[in-house]
Amino acid sequence: MEDGAVATAETAHTWRAVASATGAADRAAAEEGVCLAYRLAGLPEPENIVWADSPRAGAAVVMRLTAEGTAGRSVRDAVRTRPWATARGRLLDRVGPDGWAGHWALTGAQLWDGLVMLTERIRTGLIEELAGTAATSDGTADTPADARKAAKEAAAAEQAVRLTLLDAVLGQHDAAWLAAFDGQEGAEGLAGIAAVARAAGWWWPYEKTAVVCERPVELHLDEAGRLDRGDGPALAFPDGFALYAWRGMPVPPEFLDGLTELTPRRIREEENAELRRVMLEHYGYDRYLKESDAAPVQRDETGVLWRLELEGDEPQVMVEVVNSTPEPDGTHRTYWLRVPPRTRTAREGVAWTFGLEEAEYAPMRQT
Predict the structure, then answer these.
(1) Mutual orientation of helices 109-134 and 82-106 as an angle, nearest 10°?
(2) Distance separating alpha carbons of residues 332 and 177, to the nearest angstrom
(3) Which of residues 145 and 91 earns the better pLDDT score?
(4) Most buried residue among 98, 122, 285, 356 by CB atoms closer than 10 A?
């Protein structure tokens, strides 16, 4: 790989910070970036740049402008797709397939999975909210004909939102592939796109108008890069558009309010298996087992096996183990290990945590 294509950890780190930035956009810098992107694509600068406080608001503005016919045609292909293809083609020609794979692994791949999860969740939230708003039916259907009409309207509304999202450039959330081309020869055409990404959120480029969105005001992720917060929105924008999630799973806003007052009975009575799993994770499996007066199903020298049957869900099976090494105060800490539902003995469960079969597990010392 040539020196110019050497990837650095600093590049991925820099663009990770761009992707996770919150707070007010640098509107002046973003507008300069938009105009530069148009010029680099060989296009006249847009006549108008309209700001929106969230992707939801931005998509709504775009839908209105395109319906009115005042924005002109989408120029996303010229502004974003072609420069990206050119940059990738030149880098691939220079370093070859193996060089490209190594370069991507050190740059864009570091951010890709997390940003795909985030952007897909935002898209889903936009479709849910805007398609529901755009549908004219009030949700009631007195006759089969009414029901068919409502379903048709809902489908049309959803399709309109999806088409609008196809024209979006993801701003800061395009950080993964921008990291791969940062500073690379042949990527000069991406300078405008990169400038907008550093300064703002999603945006839509059209002939006459560009619609640019603010960045989030809050973003909460877990160690796996998933949206995650137990006491408020995991992602929130200035206009109130927000997504609520627990370890990546979407949850209703009101659901989180009840997590601080959970009881074993409330958990058992939850009919939604996914929400019940969230409750258990928040409450703690060990605490739930103890307060539910559950009985162990097996014990041996390695620990105690517990099995919790859940209606409509797979059993939750845990092994309770005690650390043989004492803490500084002389006590021995207890750990709870979640193991597969098929587990039948504590020893089998502990062996599984080491990637072993039960017969293969023979520790010199239990720690």
Answers:
(1) 130
(2) 48
(3) 91
(4) 122
